[in-house]
Amino acid sequence: MSLVAVSGWEPSCRALVLISENALLMIGLLLFAIVLLALLVLVYTAYPGRGQQVPKAAWIGAAMVQVRDRLPTLDRTTERSHHTQE
User: Fold this and answer.
1) Are 68 and 48 within 8 A, CB to CB?
2) Is residue 61 part of a domain?
3) pTM of the model
4) Quick check: 44 and 67 in contact, CB under 8 A?
5) Digit-coded pLDDT (tens) for 14-60
6) How far apart are CA 43 and CA 64, in angstroms?
7) Is the pLDDT of residue 82 over 50?
8) Are residues 1 and 26 in the same domain?
């Protein structure tokens, strides 16, 4: 366990908070996972989402396309036909 000083409005109002090292590790791993997911979404929308290859990493684009093909999606023609019937 490590001590972290949390400053308040006045120097006399400092509170010492105990934070376990496991909690800090979990927060760090979660932040890393969030940034990694955001990077993957950014790369997908920039390249494979528009039908282009990812430069210098074509395997990433191929993997993203395989995942996209496995996910359930709405068919655009079915979606348009529902709107035109109304």
Assistant:
1) yes
2) yes
3) 0.57
4) no
5) 444 556 777 888 999 999 999 999 999 999 888 887 888 888 888 88
6) 10
7) yes
8) yes
In this structure, what token pair is assigned to residue 3? Answer: 């001590």
User: Which region among 48-52, 64-68, 76-80 has the lowest average model confidence (pLDDT)?
Assistant: 76-80
Which of 77, 36, 45 has its CA nearest to residue 64?
45
List the structure tokens of 27: 């927060």
Q: How far apart are CA 41 and CA 49, in angstroms?
A: 10
- Asked, for residue 42, whether it belongs to a domain, the answer is no
- Residue 9 forms part of a structural domain: yes
Residue 3 within any structural domain of the chain: yes
Helix, strand, coil proportions of the chain in percent (round to 5)? 65, 10, 25
Q: pLDDT band at 80, cuts 50/70/90?
A: low
Range of the domain at 54: 47-86
The whole-angstrom separation of Cα 3 and Cα 13 is 16
